[in-house]
Amino acid sequence: MLKHLRAPRSHALAAAIGLTLVSAAAFAQDAAPATAAPAEGEAKTLDALMVTAQRKVERAKDVPVALTTVDREKLHVLGSGGGDIRFLSGRLPSLNIESSFGRAFPRFYIRGLGNTDFDLNASQPVSLVYDDIVLENPLLKGFPVFDLENVELLRGPQGTLFGRNTPAGVVKFESAKPTRELEGYGQVSYGTYGTTNFEGAVSGPLGANWSGRASAMFQRRDDWVDNTNLNARTNQKLEGYDESALRLQLQYDGSDTFHALFNVHARRLNGTARLFRAQLFKKGTNDLFDGFDEEKVGIDGRNFQHLKTFGASARLSWDLSNELTLYSITGYETADSLSRGDIDGGVGAMFLPGGSTPVGIPFTAESADGLPDHRQITQEFRLESNYSGPLNWQAGLFYFDEDITVDSLNYDTLAGGVQAGHAQQKQRNKAWAAFGSLEYAVTDRFKLRGGLRYTQDKKDFSASVLQSAPFGAPVSGPFKVTTDVDDVSWDISGVFQATDDINLYARVAKGFRAPSIQGRLLFQTPPQPSVADAEKVISYEAGLKADLWDKRARLGFALFRYTVDNQQLNAVGGALNQTILVNADKTLGQGFEIDLDAYLTDNLMVTFGASYNDTEIQDKNLFVAPCGGGCTVTDPIVVRNGQTLAAIDGNSLPQAPKWVYNVTARYSLPLANGNEFYVYTDWAYRSEVNFFLYESKEFRGKALLEGGLRVGYQWDNGRYDVALYGRNILDEVRAVGGIDFNNLVGFVNDPRIVGVEFKASF
């Protein structure tokens, strides 16, 4: 089933680095004083991993789904350098996250399936669920990661139990809950470029029947990139931000049969939008231009980003009997944003790379995308059984209602940045679903599960050109589109307990994503919205989950293969500079994933993850416009109706690395009075990625290896912690995305950050 498994030298290098770190830490453990070792018979073991992947608490071993969890300490370490939700990219098998909007608009990919569309009403095949609420709009999916219990990554279609649009999988976040005991923590850090992080929470009782939790975070970074254009209309320094978020929870726990958890949360982000760099790539290669300096850029357009989100939810449950529980989950979300940037990444119509001869840019581009009006309402009712016999079930209803307005604005950079184009999209999306699942214990060692979901989804869309852009569409519209579809999704799986420590499972699942509509009309002549029909996924998966070495290690392994019919893809670029939606006849994906957690010694904890994803677009009749000039296209070229097109049959999906590796190692040296010295290192590697549907020598991201290191000291039984940390400690600089505006525009990853942090708990 799998092919091309031989890893090139760069993959071996990534694995070797991880193994070297582990070996070094093991040597340090062997060299530690004898008093550091636990007493005989007290070897550390891993507790049973509990998850809610099937909407109820159960052992991960018993769940027939490939999943990975991230605990609180790992989340804390990964985010210590001020990173947003993208710090999870590559830290879990088969997961990639990228953004052309910076911190505001993350795009998720699982097993290669994702959506590169940068429109503010774009749908994604990866669903993000935060405290049981589906966050549909991409701007909602960047909500900060703080004060969480854990994160669960569920790979493969999950539609029979979760929200909507989950053909690739689900990333599930669960906040830390209110407690009946007074507790809390506060942490503050400071690092390179003035990177300042604060995070804290207070939790405790609020009378006899209530408890509450208040959590907050603040992150800030100074502007650290100098704009070498002294006549710029934007700031002379760029790439800074300040972001804050708040979460308030109120829990009712005064009844044995009724429970309630209320949640209010908000986010505010201000700073630089994604910084684009003209002529980033050397012609004919994906090398950065000679003399590239990540701390310098030359642009003349304005650059800023503002985002506010607010949400509230109510999670209620009633124990109707000892065997039945009814759940109600109500959610409300809203977002307001405006992001403006110099998209051509240069000055005027020229770019001066490293002081050499000026390079011409075909045209200037300065634009903004805004979300002036948005709201999302969701409601779910779910009934769950808890029988003592072999049969149990869940059944429910789900409702989704989203109303959104998107502004697309163009500016004339050479005329002082005056507005020179405005298009607007409006979309109302209503969907409802009925779902259910059954679980039957055939024997004490063999369980079967099956799920079914009926979905009805309707979109009413209109788009208008309110102000014509130069060389663009005239004032026109509204152009109206309506889609109305229904679908039946399903899954069937089995778990077999081969031994007391090893479970085998297999799963077949069908996923569904409703049609998408896009109306970026400013430069489309004649203006016309594009529509991508519904896509459907059939996924096959088999694997094992095992406890090893007397529960000192835990292993997960999965093989998978999937097919996507009518996959929704986003085609950008070409001489006409258009962005349109298309459907590919079929896409194939296959690969494997490994998860390993292990105590190599009592003081050395190691995790390792790896995945191989081979994706292929199969459509001999699908052609897209490549870059209109500048890049070196490697796909076959045809000319149809006077337009140059590239054949993409056989290409891999964009932003879909074949290889992902990650490793962490935590070595602790226990000291007197419950104190501890520790070293924590983490590494993530992903292989090359293609930025667009067509392939070219320039728009292909090189392999990326990023590492972190944390050296700390804890005292008073872990209540206090002081640490030195580093993120991207090798200072790897790589292009992680591009904009196909015919001038080899790209953007790079975050810089190396080094800092110090203090944390106190009570």
TrEMBL record:
PROSITE patterns: TONB_DEPENDENT_REC_3. Residues 298-729 form the TonB-dependent receptor-like beta-barrel domain. It comes from Lysobacter gummosus. The keyword Ribosomal protein does not apply. It is found in: Cell outer membrane. This is TonB-dependent receptor. Transmembrane segments: none annotated. It comes from the Bacteria. It is a multi-pass membrane protein. Gene3D superfamilies: TonB-dependent receptor, beta-barrel domain. Keywords: Cell outer membrane, Ion transport, Iron, Iron transport, Membrane, Receptor, Signal, TonB box, Transmembrane, Transmembrane beta strand, Transport. Pfam families: Plug, TonB_dep_Rec_b-barrel. InterPro entries: Beta-barrel_TonB, Beta-barrel_TonB_sf, Plug_dom, TonB-dep_rcpt-like. The keyword Signal applies. Residues 1-28 form the signal peptide.
